[in-house]
Amino acid sequence: MRQAGRYMPQYRKLRQRHSILDLCRNPELAAEVTLQPVHRLGVDAAIIFADILLPFEPLRLGLSFTAGEGPHIQRPIRDAADVERLPAFNVDAELGFVMDAIRLARRELPADVPLIGFAGAPFTLASYAIEGGASRTFTKTKRFMYQTPDTWHLLLSKLADVVGRFLAAQARAGAQALQLFDSWVGCLSPDDYRTYVQPHSRKALTIASAAKVPLIHFGTGTATFLEDFAAAGGDVISIDWRIPLDAAWARIETRAIQGNLEPAALLAPAAERTRHVRDILTRAGGRPGHIFNLGHGILPETDVAAVRAVVELVHGG
Ligand code: 1CP
Prior knowledge:
Number of domains: 1
Number of helices: 14
Order of helices and strands: HHHEEEHHHEHHHEHEHEHEHEH
Number of strands: 9
Bound molecules: coproporphyrinogen I
Radius of gyration: 19 Å
Shape: globular
Largest sheet: 7 strands, parallel
Structural class: alpha/beta
Distance between the termini: 22 Å
CATH class: Alpha Beta
Helix content: 40-55%
């Protein structure tokens, strides 16, 4: 999930002077933002400040973030010709600023705070590339998938190759774990996940696994196909809040699960927030493989003190 962001006053202050893309492309600033939540919240790990859409620039799709904060893709993918012309590129040459930020952040972080690198999963990236931005229904994406399955598979295969190599490069630069974000994959049926997405997520995770660091496979809305989602790969399977932690654990064979706090529980009164956290800890049952986390990103409306209180509660047992 995202740790930095608009809920943090220090982050908002930096954002008054720099766009998101400026922050991402400037390794000093990206490293600074990466460290903000570690200092302010006392979390156990840091996630590099970047964005899943950064590979769209070297893919020549064009990327900007508009005032309403949503991403905008200037040349969205419409047909087979668009997919075929996606250029192959060297991740270290074109996205080297991310690896530079990782090297800097790693140097500045305390030795016992691991740094997580990340990339978008093929499906979630394809959805932005085809829709041209955020979507609620993924209509264009699904039409493309059903109408031109061969082109769809070519697109996802190309994206899997890019993100697999990008993840491995981040590990080489010093990231000690890698997270693949399939934020919107829960819009698919179990059958469509297996047919249209799973082989490509597996490919991305297999390429990344050459880096020999733990891989976190993140998704939301995956409860209806959790077994297939887990089978695509990842040493850690991330779950959202739509499934109880113990129910998820009973269904998949994995050493580790990440999640599963409802982000909106951070907006609840303290007693209700605490009840949510304790319920997850009870269901984790002391398993060493539970990584306590939100099921998705922190909402901009969240009070930093509420996040801190959760970190302290989890650390206190
Ligand atoms: O915590 C951190 O410091 C990590 C930084 C980080 C991460 C992990 C950012 C910076 N983006 C991401 C991943 C990301 N980006 C995801 C996957 C995780 C998730 O589902 O939240 C997605 C879907 C995006 C795409 C994106 N970037 C959106 C979502 C738009 C939509 O479809 O609803 C937005 C708003 C952004 C901009 C952005 N990137 C990062 C931040 C903190 C922000 C928020 C806005 C801001 O700074 O003004």
